[in-house]
């Protein structure tokens, strides 16, 4: 029987990449533990972001994440000779030591990053992985092949911290207690947390003091603080027998000497099970290309535990690693691809029922609250994506019991939108369309601000909000019948909204307006938002107008990695998303390419041209991108101008999800002549 891990496209680099510092630093590995914690770094093992580290853990659950263990700088010691297995960048401009020059190869084994260092005829392998469902990271080394000559050892410098993962280190205010008991080191930050490091053998020595002035070039590019310092918590000296793992486990609970072989087997078994579940849930994955199976594995990183008092098994979705939390809009947009396409139906239900508890005045939180925090409801589309996520869940799982339990929440969402809720969100009885917006508020997914200025306010009747509104009413018509409720109110509202949606068609025949009835009238900017009027399961458009939308977006917005947020040549277009925070925010939705739009584009293309293979070809460049930036993951954004350099968050949930979902639906479409129907996958 084929090992599911063998279905993955290889992500591997030799000396041509590993030995070139810029190329090795551009490529990052990211791990997640299912609790919101993560680890990440570069192929070169340098720190280039403030978010890089071996253990970033939710010290203040659910998402108060703290950089706990930054680095484990290792040296291979043979007699009196030391060879570095790491690299550091310093504020002086120095790169020292240059361990990357000994790096013969790097690859991902499932999700596990693997480095191989070559010193003459001696090969040392290093691996890092996280324990699923626990705030524990493992770092391990072994000799590959037989040992010759003097017995080697691994000497490890442990660099720790205690700062918020968004923040700056404060050496003067960080004074942890260090204690060693045999092969275990404990670093205690009174009133905050304890870091426990347990080695496989050898000696553990407590230390103190700081390694200062690490250089963070990616933060400098982003216009943020570019210096960091880390606390020298201790040193490990570990024997390195041939063919045996030496290393340590580090976590927020007491650790015993780890069985690294068994722990690694657990991690690989988890990865294997993720792929096997998708294969069991949908036979189309049997013939899926390796890059698609990489997306299946990538999807597993984003679902996290979010227990609630009345739902201890509550779940949510991290919008992206490393800096995002869980967001209502992103979660609901991503849920079908992350959970339904991969056969994770129970996770999908728990996410939906977790969020159902936070619906208020018909709205879903934009920023999901932390413990004791107040939810932020400044989003006009999250609740509409919530209805679509429920539709997709019921269609995929057939779980009408869950639908009946939660249908009152869905009905309440529609009722509030009909009578009016926060921020001017309400149906205009004249045309059945949703109006949304107030000065100074950003309510759509194009939500960037520069200082106090909303870059794309889009006050009025945004096109995708109303495509979602019509789709929600159509979905509610079907779900009401399945839940034993009357569908008549939703059917009537849908008829009115569909008739009103005709107002979005531009009289010059050049697609749809982006916003109607705004403070300055109709906005004819060519943006990708209109594509949802074609890609969503229920479209309010006549076929000939759908075709015009696809043609217009295809000619000006489509790139290899997603759709531009504004057409080139339009006033305000920005072809690059880099520079200071203000510069980046100003470009965020003014031409920047968004990967999450690639899936809807491919579905819309199929709807018009009925060629599933041709539509899938738009997704294929993502297979190449998986070997760049966040390895095995899909970036949040790319520059609008070629070569479309990846920017933003290197591992984004809805980027992975919408592309995976689109590929799956299109693969089904190859074997069916049916229309893409609201209650079927294709």
Summarize, please.
This protein is α+β, with helices and mostly antiparallel strands and 682 residues long. It has 2 domains: 4-270, Distorted Sandwich (Beta-galactosidase, Chain A, domain 5); 282-669, Glycosyltransferase, CATH 1.50.10.
Overview of this protein structure:
- With 682 residues, the protein is of the alpha+beta class.
- The chain has two domains: 4-270, Beta-galactosidase, Chain A, domain 5, CATH 2.70.98; 282-669, Glycosyltransferase (Alpha/alpha barrel).
- It is 30% helix and 26% strand.
- The strands form nine sheets. It has a nine-stranded antiparallel beta sheet with strand order 1-9-10-11-12-20-16-15-14.
- Strand 34 (637-638) and strand 35 (646-647) form a beta hairpin.
- Helix 13 packs across helix 15.
- The chain is elongated and about 85 Å long.
- The protein starts with 11 loop residues before the first strand and ends in a 13-residue tail after the last helix.
């Amino acid at each position: 029987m084929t090992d599911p891990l063998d279905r993955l496209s290889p992500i591997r680099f030799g000396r041509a990449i590993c030995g070139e510092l810029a190329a090795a630093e551009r490529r990052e590995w990211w791990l997640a533990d299912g609790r919101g914690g993560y680890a990440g770094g570069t192929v070169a093992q340098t720190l280039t972001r403030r978010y890089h580290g071996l253990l970033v853990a939710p010290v203040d659950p659910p998402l108060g994440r703290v950089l706990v263990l930054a680095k484990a700088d290792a040296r291979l010691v043979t007699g009196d000779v030391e060879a570095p297995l790491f690299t550091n960048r310093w504020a002086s401009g120095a790169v020292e030591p240059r361990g990357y020059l000994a790096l013969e190869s790097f690859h991902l084994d499932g999700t596990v990053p693997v480095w191989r260092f070559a010193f003459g005829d001696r090969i040392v392998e290093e691996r890092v992985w996280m324990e699923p469902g626990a705030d524990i990271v493992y770092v391990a080394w072994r000799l590959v092949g037989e040992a010759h000559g003097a017995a080697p050892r691994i000497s490890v410098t442990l660099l720790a911290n205690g700062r918020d993962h968004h923040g700056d280190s404060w050496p003067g205010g960080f004074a942890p207690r260090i204690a060693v008991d045999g092969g275990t080191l404990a670093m205690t930050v009174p009133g905050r947390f304890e870091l426990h490091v347990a080695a496989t053998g050898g000696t553990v020595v407590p230390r103190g003091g700081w390694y200062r002035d690490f250089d963070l070039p990616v933060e400098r590019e982003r216009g943020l603080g570019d210096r960091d310092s880390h606390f020298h918590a201790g040193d490990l000296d570990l024997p390195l027998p041939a063919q045996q793992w030496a290393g340590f486990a580090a976590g927020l609970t007491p650790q015993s000497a780890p069985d690294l072989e068994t722990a690694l087997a657990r991690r690989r078994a988890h990865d294997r099970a993720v792929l096997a579940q998708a294969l069991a849930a949908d036979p189309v994955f049997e013939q899926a290309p390796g890059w698609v199976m990489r997306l299946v594995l990538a999807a597993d990183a984003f679902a996290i535990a979010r227990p609630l008092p009345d739902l201890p098994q509550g779940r949510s979705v991290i919008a992206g690693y490393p800096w995002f939390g869980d967001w209502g809009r992103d979660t609901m947009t991503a849920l079908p691809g992350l959970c339904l396409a991969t056969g994770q139906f129970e996770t999908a239900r728990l996410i939906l029922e977790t969020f159902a508890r936070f619906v208020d005045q018909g709205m879903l939180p934009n920023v999901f609250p932390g413990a004791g925090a107040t939810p932020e409801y400044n989003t006009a589309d999250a609740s509409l994506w919530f209805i679509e996520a429920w539709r997709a869940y019921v269609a995929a799982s057939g779980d009408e019991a869950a639908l009946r339990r939660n249908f009152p929440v869905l009905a309440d969402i529609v009722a509030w939108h009909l009578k009016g809720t926060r921020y001017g969100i309400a149906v205009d009885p004249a045309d059945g369309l949703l109006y949304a917006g107030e000065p100074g508020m950003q309510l759509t997914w194009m939500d960037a601000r520069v200082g106090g200025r909303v870059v794309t306010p889009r006050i009025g009747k945004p096109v995708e909000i109303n495509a979602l509104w019509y789709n929600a009413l159509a979905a509610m018509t079907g779900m009401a019948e399945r839940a034993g409720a009357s569908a008549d109110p939703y059917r009537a509202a849908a008829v009115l909204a569909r008739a009103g949606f005709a107002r979005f068609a531009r009289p010059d025949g050049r697609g749809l307006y982006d916003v109607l009835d705004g403070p300055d009238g109709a906005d004819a900017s060519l943006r990708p938002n209109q594509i949802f009027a074609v890609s969503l399961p229920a479209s309010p458009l006549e076929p000939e107008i759908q075709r015009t939308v696809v043609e217009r977006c295809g000619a000006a917005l489509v790139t290899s990695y997603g759709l531009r947020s504004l057409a080139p040549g339009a006033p305000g277009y920005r072809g690059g998303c880099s520079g200071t925070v203000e510069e980046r925010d100003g470009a965020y939705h003014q031409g920047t390419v968004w990967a999450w739009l690639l899936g809807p584009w491919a579905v819309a293309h199929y709807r018009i041209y009925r060629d599933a293979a041709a539509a899938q070809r738009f997704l294929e460049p993502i297979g190449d991108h998986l070997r760049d930036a966040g390895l095995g993951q899909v970036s949040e954004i790319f520059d609008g101008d070629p070569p479309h350099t990846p920017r933003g968050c290197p591992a984004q949930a809805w980027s992975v999800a919408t592309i995976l979902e689109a590929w799956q639906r299109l693969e089904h479409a190859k074997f069916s002549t049916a229309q893409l129907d609201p209650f079927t996958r294709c």
